[in-house]
Amino acid sequence: MPDFIAQWLNQNEIFTAMTIMQYWDGLVNTVQLVFLSLVIGLVFAVPLAILRTSKNPLVSGPVWLYTYLFRGTPLLIQLYIIYYGIAQIPGIQETFWWEIFREPFYPALLAFALNTCAYTTEIIRGAIVSTPAGEIEAAKAYGMNWWLRMRRIVLPSAARRAVQAYSNEVIFMLHSSAIASVVTIVDLTGAARNIYSRFYAPFDAFIFVALLYMALTFILVFAFRKLENHLLRHQRPVGS
Amino acid sequence: MKKLIVAASCALAMAAGTVQAKDWKEIRLAFDVPYEPFEYRDENGELTGFEVELAEAMCEELKAECEFVIQAWDGMIPGLLARKYDAIFSSMSITEERAERVLFSDPYYITPGGWFARDGFSADVTSKEEMEGKVIGVQRGTTMDTHATEEFGGIATIKRYTTAEDMVLDLEGQRLDVVFVDYPVGEQTILSQEGFKEVGKPVKLGQGVAVAMRKRDEDLANKVNAALKKLKNDGTYDAIMKKYFNYDIKI
């Protein structure tokens, strides 16, 4: 941060250069955590959603159980179980896993990724099963095999139907990430709580962080509108 | 009519005079029970504890009849202002916010912060060099948090917890090297388990705990201060303290 800005900020009572830097670090942590968990969640959700639509119950059953478990319990409980539960496994501290799970970041990332993956799987599954039968019949008539049909017809068509519901999931994930602060991660909410407890100023600390979350949400909403315009351009009236 | 008003105001003045001249032969003290070992009921249902005994000694010193009132913590200050009792003797820490509404006596005890770690821990908790790179757990917003941040901020990693339970779990799980916590809490939750120990000396932080009274009752505050001072000096205080604590909370 340039010196003149720091000096100017330090005239404030609460929002000094140090406080702003804490919020900045929190912002970096939040964005990292949410972005990584969404990417991981989406990558695994697509194949899982395809398995979930399988007619064989041995294939679709385990996926159903997974999404049911993770959609059926609060994210906070999942985070507690993963973060505190792992540390209770006897002998875990001596294995190399401890290098990863000692820090709160990876347990939180694991919990968030598993959670968003479960929701995303169900969103994509819903989009896949609602593919018009005519599209699939046409693909079969062209002699496309299963793989080609999936790649050319079902998934692109499902992506268009899923994108609106998925944009909601992304925003929910951003807001759910606020609970990362309970396992000592200094994310945006963690930074706000630290600043609140130092200055006993709940309004200043939390309204400022609320505005930051709103700004992040605005960016997401904007990006998804662009994506929707792109994916759904065939639905626009002719000539516009 | 005029005579009546004069008579009435005279009567009022006299009545006010008797209130003014209250000699504090009867004092009502409020406790929030149970808060072991400061105030709780023993097997026979009798009120006892460090603060109860100290209050009894103080009343004896003041030659006053003391009545003990049980009051839940959230209604403590409102009950005092509503004259349900005259003083709060229930582990109330001095803070600026409270001092705006009540009058505090001199502090009569302070619970220190204690350093606790697993048995293998060997660093000196007063040395900045030895604490470098260590992971310290504190409860967010406590005086221990402020102290650790001032001493080791930027040198060691400080993790802030909302509850003591979560912090103790992470000390057990080896995510923390050492915790700095209210001494009684650490004694009950950490030292009571195998494999943990206290490191360094307890550190007294903050302004301590004092008797809280209504702002107008300065005469009572003076008496309380004088009595507490006497008890602290003549050994009565130490005798009571040794019954309940094996560390020093005197201030």
UniProtKB/TrEMBL annotation, chain A:
Single biological process term from Gene Ontology: amino acid transport
Superkingdom, taxonomy of origin: Bacteria
InterPro entries in the record: AA_ABC_transptr_permease_3TM, ArtM/GltK/GlnP/TcyL/YhdX-like, MetI-like, MetI-like_sf
GO cellular component: ATP-binding cassette (ABC) transporter complex
Keyword Chaperone in record: no
Membrane topology: Multi-pass membrane protein
Regions crossing the membrane: 31-51, 63-85, 170-193, 205-224
Stated family: Belongs to the binding-protein-dependent transport system permease family. HisMQ subfamily.
Protein name, entry field: Arginine ABC transporter permease protein ArtM
Organism name: Marinobacter pelagius
Automatic annotation (TrEMBL), chain B:
Predominant location category: other
Subcellular location: Cell envelope
Signal peptide range in chain numbering: 1-21
Superkingdom per UniProt: Bacteria
All copies of domain Solute-binding protein family 3/N-terminal, residue ranges: 26-248
GO cellular component: cell envelope
PROSITE patterns per the UniProt record, alphabetical: SBP_BACTERIAL_3
Pfam families reported in the protein's UniProt record: SBP_bac_3
Coiled coil: none
Protein keywords: Signal
Keyword Plastid in annotation: no
Family in the record: Belongs to the bacterial solute-binding protein 3 family.
Designated name of the protein: Amino acid ABC transporter substrate-binding protein (PAAT family)
Organism: Marinobacter pelagius
Lineage, uppermost ranks: Bacteria, Pseudomonadati, Pseudomonadota, Gammaproteobacteria, Pseudomonadales
